[in-house]
Design brief:
Elements lengths: L1 E7 L9 E6 L2 E8 L12 H18 L5 H16 L12 E9 L3 E7 L3 E6 L4 E5 L2 H9 L1 H4 L6 H15 L22 E6 L3 E7 L1 H8 L6 H25 L16 E7 L2
Antiparallel strand pairs: 1-10, 2-3, 3-4, 4-5, 5-8, 6-7, 6-9, 9-10
Helix pairs in contact: 1-2, 6-7
Length: 273
């Protein structure tokens, strides 16, 4: 596999809650999520959850090449649950969760799964691009985050409004009319976006956490075709570097209102032969 990878935590001293990995013909990316400042009920933490789920999912995908990706995800969620349900309160509303992007290629087809607000970018051999993103979290967020976006990022008032917003968002997690994300309940896998694409139509496949997609979907400093060009010329590190430069130029979120001034950013770029 011709895979390039980069991952950077939001701050040098903070644990990176993203996870990405690839094996022959398969790749996964997860973006761990929680409620900032809240007790999670879990002894292990968000980074443990995303990395453990991601590792088990990649292994399951590789071991069962004919099993649908949603079934692999459900089995992996069950496996993670079994690892800590005796020590952790998995009924806690702030229990760790994670987005999931997974792909698997056979001789003719790329199968994909997207759950949560991470993105799968498909580059076609004809030069076109298609970004597959689960928009349900964004749609719910837009209804709730007006008071947050009106305040300077990092200010005390912004922090208070953000806490209220996240609490309201947590109440809509894994519920009809809300959004779906990997957590303690394997049924969330049933709500993932899934599909297949002919492999010979693709030039590359890229998995991105939402900290990396900011350049396109939040800052609007590039479209997906331009982002792909940056990936091909400068690699994942180049794309993340552009995101960091934009964040540094708007530390208070005045130009681009956002919950976090900086976020973990991860890119896995797979160029097909």
């Amino acid at each position: 596999m011709n895979v390039a990878f980069a991952s950077q935590s939001a701050d040098p001293g903070r644990e990176n809650e993203d996870f990405a990995a690839a094996s022959f013909g398969a790749a996964v990316l997860l973006d761990g999520a929680g409620v900032a400042g809240a007790e999670t009920g879990c002894l292990h933490g968000i980074a443990w959850f995303s990395s453990t789920l991601g590792g088990l999912l990649l292994a399951d995908i590789a071991a069962h090449p004919s099993r649908p990706l949603a079934d692999c995800l459900a089995d992996s969620i069950r496996a993670v649950r079994s690892l800590h349900e005796d020590t952790c309160d998995l009924a806690n509303r702030a229990s760790p969760t994670s987005t999931v992007v997974a792909v698997r290629a056979d001789a003719a087809t790329l199968e994909y799964l997207v759950l949560g607000d991470s993105t799968l970018l498909l580059a076609e051999t004809d030069g076109s691009t298609a970004a597959i993103t689960d928009q349900r979290l964004d749609e719910v967020g837009k209804r709730l985050r007006g008071p947050v976006d009106a305040l300077p990022t990092g200010s005390p008032a912004h922090s208070a409004a953000l806490a209220e917003y996240r609490d309201a968002l947590t109440g809509l997690r894994n519920r009809p009319g809300g959004f779906w994300i990997a957590g303690p309940d394997p049924q969330a896998a049933e709500h993932a976006l899934t599909g297949t694409v002919p492999l010979d139509s693709l030039a590359s496949v890229t998995l991105l956490s939402d900290g990396a997609t900011r350049l396109v979907d939040s800052f609007e400093l590039a479209d997906w075709k331009a982002a792909l060009g940056l990936l091909n010329s400068s690699g994942p590190d180049g794309l993340i570097g552009r995101v960091r430069a934009a964040e540094a130029g708007d530390p208070d979120g005045r130009r681009w209102p956002r919950g976090k001034a900086r976020d973990d950013a991860t890119v896995l770029h797979w160029v097909l032969p």
